[in-house]
Amino acid sequence: MIERFVRRRNIAQYESILRSESDPGRRRTIESMLFQWREEERSAAHDGAGPAPEREGPLPPA
């Protein structure tokens, strides 16, 4: 339960950081970390730990 909360908070945090980051290298790093957290959440959902994140795809404009 707490793991799911932490994953979702990390996803939200990285999405927020990504919206304001303009450096291409940092953006790639953040996108990679965001991808990993989303994959962990998706994997946990398939293991019965809850639903996968609802939103997929590009981030909305800031």
Describe the protein in words.
The chain is built from two helices and no strands. It is an all-alpha fold and 62 residues long.
Relevant terms:
single chain, 62 residues, mainly alpha, 2 helices, elongated
What structural category characterises the helix and strand content? mainly alpha
Q: What distance separates the N and C termini?
A: 30 Å
| String of helices and strands | HH
* Count of extended strands: 0
What is the domain total for the residues? 1
Described by its quaternary structure, the protein is: single chain
Q: Helix content range of the residues, please?
A: 55-70%
**What is the count of DSSP helices, taking H or I runs of 4+ residues?**
2
Q: What is Rg?
A: 12 Å
Largest sheet: none
pLDDT < 50 runs, ≥5 residues: none
Average the pLDDT over all residues and give the rounded result.
Answer: 83
Shape: elongated
Strand content: under 5%
What's the gist of this structure?
The protein has helices spanning 2-20, 24-46. With 62 residues, the chain is mostly helical.
